[in-house]
Amino acid sequence: MTRPRRRHQQPGQPPQAAPRRLHRNGRGLFLGAMLGAVAGYFAGRAAGNPAMGIILGALAGSALLYRVNPGARRRR
After folding, report:
1. How far is CA 53 from the centre of its chain?
2. 58 vs 76: CA distance, rounded Å
3. Is this prediction's pTM over 0.70?
């Protein structure tokens, strides 16, 4: 019984590892944007411009949680 060949595998060559997919963490981006916007609102309100605080806080929070909380890895 022969194993089915993987895509792009040449005959007679050892099997290659599957290409790594880019990791996308939508949950971390959303949660970071929400928490960052709330924290940025209060920081911006203290500085005198809550709208700019919301925008900068959402950007910083989403970037931070995108990297810190990569989410669960799906193993087969």
Report:
1. 23
2. 34
3. no
The two tokens of residue 44 are 């911006």
pLDDT of 60? 94
Amino acid present at 3: R
Q: Are 36 and 57 in contact (CB under 8 A)?
A: yes
Assigned token pair, 48: 């005198």
- Counted residue by residue, the chain has a size of 76
| Sign for the pseudo-dihedral over CA of 44, 47, 51, 57 | negative
The mean of the pLDDT values for the chain is 78
Tell me the three state secondary structure of residue 5. Answer: coil
Tokens 């963490």 belong to 25
